[in-house]
Recover the amino acids of this structure.
């Protein structure tokens, strides 16, 4: 399936709503997927918590250099 990013530096443009709508779409289709949350507000992570297995929910802080390393490691480990 690949990766889908909902990103940008401007607030209030619908990134969270788009991510949640896509989450609901994948869930309704019965697809297996992971969620990577990098927003300090964690709105998406809070919404999906308990609705997908814990091992498929990743909280990564991209405001620190190690967060980018963690994200690249996660991408590299994809099967």
């Amino acid at each position: 399936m690949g990766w889908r990013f909902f990103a940008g530096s401007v607030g209030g443009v619908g990134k969270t709503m788009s991510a949640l709508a896509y989450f609901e779409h994948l869930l309704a289709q019965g697809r297996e997927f992971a969620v990577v949350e990098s927003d300090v507000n964690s709105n998406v992570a809070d919404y999906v918590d308990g609705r997908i297995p814990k091992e498929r929910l990743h909280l990564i802080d991209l405001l620190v250099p190690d967060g980018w390393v963690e994200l690249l490691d996660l991408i590299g480990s994809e099967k």
Summary: Residues 37 and 47 are 11 Å apart (CA to CA). The chain has three helices and two strands. The mean pLDDT is 91.
